[in-house]
């Protein structure tokens, strides 16, 4: 089977998260097989370095340099990795699986969200890394962060979406109840599956389990709020039945501010939210798209394709795991000049 | 609105799935496939398809056929019957088309595009490159005939800079002959031992093609394990909606499956983060002696 993408050695089980280093030279892959895999993006591709965990890993991010990373997963612990020495340090733990992990480079803090309904703030460089812990109304599914505006977006079960300021999170003391800047409800009627902040930080895109993507803006001004909209995506007519697939992955292009979406139907689309147009639809992948990440230099799109355990993939393709790099995104994601 | 659609005449040339070469004519493609990929290595006979070659080998020479010749890595199998453009996996065909269209698009926009895309070069290939490619090919073939040597035995040291397990023949940087995603899944992961020192309890993951992930519950007290897979209720698709459940995400349900379930180590061993940390520090000290 041939695809136009460069393929890297995939993990043994589903891909849960992808992260590029700031220099775009390294790619971290978190997998349900209980490992994180560090790929050097050289030509020709080399075998990744594999770091194992006692349970499935759900989230991974690079830290202050491309030699440090943080991971979390079903074993509830937040781990710091040093790739120079291969050392692992457990920063602390949550009471349930760590579902999302985000590094805020401008504040040098780490944010972790968990199904135990707490958001924790860590300062990895200090001896007691846990800075503060915040109780939220429901299980956290994903956290997004925009260095451009220092905003942190937390999406939860029951369609909660809260907006925090990274500075406020960094300075909050333990025990202090921090009010978010905004407490919003998702514009979509169904469970939020994925979320991504715009490159300019002015708004975000969120995808639901019911084949729909919403574009919303942070600015509480009614004029800005009136611009929010939602549209249907990742649907397919199979044998006369309109099949509706979860939107598993969203990622904004760091320069062009257009975004890619990937669904359990195995399709990846590139959208221009300001023109309200689809710019590109890539051909179907044999299994669901689990995760997408643009490299910070905007030249590559990393694609993790694997079955998401959501009924959307044929029995026979459920074991397929693919890890691909698409390097034509600089062309594909460039907004068309307005006519 | 006033946007003019660029009228582009785009014709997809016949191409060979085995080596991704394009041809002017379907006839030439057939000739190419016969002589390059479906040629018997024991006699001058050329066959029309991979299946034909296999039957020929088995019946005439009474032996299992050698892998197909001159193919991109991973495309030397006999399982796909290809004759010219017929029988190419639809997925591969679609992807190829998309790629060619993109290339045609970029060619038209060559002035604006920043020239990142590397296209096929039909210039004379420098001799040095040819020699290097030949050496790589020889290594690949040697590795194939002698599988034991493909993956070096475990290096006792830290696994930095392990040579790539599948040397690829890329003369043009950026142009990747890809192994098909189905092929090398998880062969290497178990080959590289994790470096000593950072290993959390679970050390071994037996991996084969589509291996189940490691079992995360090496607990002796089975009595505490009351939940079974049958307790995980996943709502079936309803009215075409693949995930009608609005109370839990697919990942949450997945995490409840027996094979992903994680049990904290019993209290006292490594329950607290502190002792976990201490343990890793201890290992670090041990590793220092190595």
From TrEMBL, chain A:
WD repeats: 50-91, 91-132, 247-281
Transmembrane segments: none
Keyword field contains Isomerase: no
Keyword Metal-binding recorded: no
Keywords: Repeat, WD repeat
Alphabetized PANTHER family for the sequence: MRNA EXPORT FACTOR AND BUB3 (PTHR10971)
Designated name of the protein: WD40-repeat-containing domain protein
Organism taxonomic ancestry: Eukaryota, Fungi, Dikarya, Basidiomycota, Agaricomycotina
UniProtKB/TrEMBL annotation, chain B:
InterPro entries named among the record's database cross-references: Znf_C2H2_type
Keyword Metal-binding: yes
Compositionally biased tracts (Low complexity): 269-278
Main location: nucleus
Residue ranges occupied by any C2H2-type domain in the UniProt entry: 38-66
GO CC annotation, single: nucleus
Region (Disordered): 237-290
UniProt entry keywords in alphabetical sequence: Metal-binding, Nucleus, Zinc, Zinc-finger
Entry's localization field: Nucleus
Molecular function via GO: zinc ion binding
Superkingdom classification of source: Eukaryota
Entry annotated with the keyword Zinc-finger: yes
Record's protein name: C2H2-type domain-containing protein
Organism: Kockovaella imperatae
